[in-house]
Amino acid sequence: MKAEKNNYIFQVDDTVLVAPQVTGEKDWIEAKITEIEDNPFIGTVINVITPEVIIFFEKPDMFKPLIKKNT
Q1: Which end of the chain has the smaller Cβ count within 10 Å, N or C?
Q2: Residue 16: Cβ within 10 Å count
């Protein structure tokens, strides 16, 4: 399954940034998409896991794609 936000299509195994409103952190944090589900009550829900093995889930508007700069 895929989820779309602002013409970006999220897919399982993508690395994304998670909003502070979801994590309780000061800044956006990095996580990997583990599942995208179609919730019959609220629509698409993205599940992610952080490198610290913390799981979060929320609607696509609380995530943004991680675009790494080439340095």
Answers
A1: C
A2: 21
Q: What is the pLDDT of residue 69?
A: 58
Exposure of 54 in the CB half-sphere (CA atoms within 13 A): 11
pLDDT tens by residue, 5-45? 656 789 999 999 999 999 999 999 999 999 999 999 999 99
Tokens of 50: 């952080």
Number of C-beta neighbours around residue 61 at 10 A: 12
In sequence order, the β-bridge partners of residue 18 are: 29, 63
Give the Cα separation of 67 and 30 in Å (integer): 11
